[in-house]
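Q: Could you write out the predicted structure for this multi-component system? I'm mainly interested in how the pieces pack against one another.
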Amino acid sequence: MLKVNNIDVFYGNIHALKDISLEVNEGEIVTLIGANGAGKSTLLKTLSGLLKPKNGNILYLTQQIAGKPAQTIVKSGISHVPEGRRVFSNMSVEENLELGAYLRNDRDGIKKDIDYVYELFPILDERRKQLSGTLSGGEQQMLAMGRALMAKPKLLLMDEPSMGLAPLVVKKIFEIIKTVNSQGTTVLLVEQNANMALSIADRAYVLETGKIVLSGTAKELQESEQVKAAYLGGL
Amino acid sequence: MEWLQQLVNGISLGSIYALIALGYTMVYGIIKLINFAHGDVFMLGAFIGFYAIARWDLGFFPALIISMLLCAIIGVIIERVAYKRLRNATRIAALITAIGVSLLIEYTVIFFRGASPEAYPEVLPNTSISILGASISSQSIMILAVTIVLMILLQFIVHKTKIGKAMRAVSHDADAARLMGINVDNTISATFAIGSALAGAAGVIFGVYYTRIEPLMGVLPGLKAFVAAVLGGIGSIPGAMVGGLVLGVVETIVSALGYSLWRDAAAFVILILILILKPSGIFGKNAREKV
Ligand SMILES: Nc1ncnc2c1ncn2[C@@H]1O[C@H](COP(=O)(O)OP(=O)(O)OP(=O)(O)O)[C@@H](O)[C@H]1O
Ligand SMILES: [Mg+2]
């Protein structure tokens, strides 16, 4: 479904991603783990069109999307839940969800999908008129996810959904990721919480200072000594 | 009932400031630029209205609409030509560019038609209506009505339409807005279009009310509208409305008390006070709760 071939991404003269290749197949949950500053967010931003790669190409379904504007990429079915949630805190929960459907014009369909998001996250239903800036971190994460789902994505990119959340909330969010995936959405999940991520993923990649150093099925990586030492240590 | 009359004068003047201030505040909200050329768009609006009325024999409302449309287009051209490439430049570079655009507009107008003032034709009936013993001109009432309608329209656009929601999203977080599929460039252009159209409307209203227009007429009202925007809390739409009205009323009171020479200074005293006492303005957010 998504095939990234040898991309390089720079910030000025900082070489943030070095010759990255990876693949996501339809229906999978693929996770990308790595330490702070490894380049995980940079990769997701490149996939969703916020950054342009200098070299390499990105094949999504049948089209080249490297360097295309973000709105084209959203339209083609890739939604990105950014690191730190980035909800529109000056707007209500419901307005955030409506913005998620910005490129859609099917009023009835949008209404139905808002109800679907409320079904997934009943707490958002209770808060629909509340300013999203006043939600708790967990609720904001749910809103960011719901907002991304409003675009009806075929591929969902998630950047550290567990960041700063209590274990119980993280568990809840990971369950929803599994639900959404079982309903047909492919997921590329970036995490530092390697344990949790590997437990729901089919396959995984490990990123270190801009390079992919390891890849395999989630099971293989869970058992790899290298991963245990670096990312699962002490657990 | 002298004071009621003064209050009406103050509100009329204040509505003009408010209409200009809205453009300042919306543009600042979305790209953090103080668009110093905005007062000159107001001037262009006044001249477009003048030509529409005096040369093409149009009435007030057609002239108002033509002026708003042309100013919207001019605003978008200014943004696309001068500011767009400076999105990632330093603020000072953008500010200097804005001042350059302002001078360019002023002296282009002077180049083509000279610096002499023009007398606005009387397009609105000017009768006095007596309310509570104060005589209030029908023009003031008309101006106030037009301003209120424009502000309601603006509130509707910003809160209820797709482009308005996009504007609020981009001004809050442009990258997050991109991830929703919002075209940020077009949204910024739309913001310039709306802000400039309001300045154009203010220009026509100014011409009708004060009857004298000239190519440098945008400088002082532009600066004062900027003060009004800061007073209300720059970036805040209700703030610009309230800030404009407060400033107009304060100036009129200062004049009415016999200190008319100090009228222009009042705005800048307010600016200094607000920057010392509450830099975020009346409706300003103290800190942005960005993650
Ligand atoms: N806007 C930027 N300008 C310059 N350098 C940047 C920018 N954003 C990221 N970087 C650098 O690129 C590298 C990769 O950053 P990135 O945010 O992709 O890491 P990450 O793996 O997502 O880390 P974290 O787990 O902390 O979110 C880092 O060295 C970072 O300093
Ligand atoms: Mg990151």
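A: Regarding packing and overall arrangement: The interface with chain B takes residues 48-50, 69-71, 74-75, 79-80, 82, 84-91, 95, 98-100, 102-103, 133, 147-148, 151 of chain A (CB under 8 Å).
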